[in-house]
Amino acid sequence: MLLEIKNLSVEFRGIRGTVQALKGVSLSIEEGEILGIVGESGSGKSVTALAILGLLGKNAAVTGGEVLYRGRNLLTLEKKAWTTIRGKEIGMVFQEPMTALHPTMKVGRQLAEVIRRHRGVSRREARRLAVAALEEVHIRDPQSVAEKYPFELSGGMRQRVVIALAMSSPPSLLIADEPTTALDVTTQHEILKLMRELSEKRGTAVLFITHDLGVVAELCRRVAVMYAGEVVETGPTAEVLRAPVHPYTWALLHALPDLADPQEPLKAIPGEAPDPRARPAGCLFAPRCHKKVARCQREKPSLEPVSQNRHTACWLAR
Ligand SMILES: Nc1ncnc2c1ncn2[C@@H]1O[C@H](COP(=O)(O)OP(=O)(O)OP(=O)(O)O)[C@@H](O)[C@H]1O
């Protein structure tokens, strides 16, 4: 297994109380696999990504669990050891490409410097590899794009440059947190296609975070659905979307816009996620669940197998 998250719990401590951001999250990614994490805002997707990358802020506390990368627990890694992991073995792409780019350096030079650092090649060779890297992310006329500053590029082009940067080491795992959310639909499709192509070609596993099940359907072989800091359903994407077991997955699926009628507004899931400072007993989705039974509000269901490769945390599936 490339990455195995076991029972991970994370809290944020502040003057207004303690926020339980993750509670007993378990996930795994095989070499070369694309796993989607999907869930509403605040469900803990980004905190999961930051925990893997060792980038949780000072007000965060890991209160339990392990993040095993090739068997090594990243949560106990020393600062020095991170230099060979973060940005090298584990690459990252976030929603806003400008955060990963130097605003006043031409993109070719930025890429060349990263390539030189990773591979120890000459300046000239790094320059050549930088143009090749731009070509690989399907940037037309890579020679002239290499001479441009990030602000001269469109959002989609910038995200391609960031993907080229992230893939240059090359990483074994790429963590992508909503990388296409800010892009128009056509560019979004192109970037998803590119990510799948690079993952297949290089054998890079991808952890893809999104609030959009449609994106998961397009890209990910497996999916983990998160709700209020917990994983409530996992399985092969095709099976989960065809026959969701957890009522929350079902609700998310039915909140997707109707492709046949684009005028139809997005159907929001009724109710609100629980206050992360005061989590109720029992199943956290119960207050919004139209299928709940008495037991749901009393006892918390754990993530259990429902078939050979599917798991869910729901009493109705037992
Ligand atoms: N730095 C922080 N300090 C305090 N609480 C935080 C911090 N970062 C995240 N949280 C809390 O942790 C919980 C999970 O947040 P997270 O950002 O992982 O959600 P998400 O699923 O990525 O949502 P979104 O789609 O909006 O990015 C939320 O309740 C959030 O308010």
From TrEMBL:
PROSITE patterns: ABC_TRANSPORTER_1, ABC_TRANSPORTER_2. GO terms for molecular function: ATP binding; ATP hydrolysis activity. It comes from the Bacteria. GO terms for cellular component: plasma membrane. Belongs to the ABC transporter superfamily. This is Peptide/nickel transport system ATP-binding protein. Residues 5-253 form the ABC transporter domain. It comes from Planifilum fulgidum.
